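Lab manual, section 2.4: Encoding a predicted structure.

Procedure: take the sequence of the chain (97 residues), apply the prediction step described in section 2.3, and record the output as structure tokens. A sample record is shown.
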Amino acid sequence: MYHHYAQIDKNGYIVGISHLSGEMYKPNMIQIDEDFDPTNKKWNGASWESYTPPEPPEPEPTQLDRMEAQMNKTQDEIRQEGADSVMEELVKRGLIV
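Recorded output:
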């Protein structure tokens, strides 16, 4: 016969499930039924409560994403960026006010 435990972190969130051959007496090991569904469950110190996990953050673009975005620019966009860069340099040097 196995003993089933949910391993929790210091905030009560489940970080693992254990099926042990003997009983365990640790504060971070909460005994559970064999058919316990750990999805979105948190231990509040006395019982399990459900919670809604936060939405994951939008991933940062990778270097490949940035390179592809540059390659997909139109010729007009590239010409405009070049013209803007030249104008910025001329203003910086005081040749154009």
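Check your result against the sample. The beta strands are 3-8, 14-20, 29-32, 41-43, 48-50.
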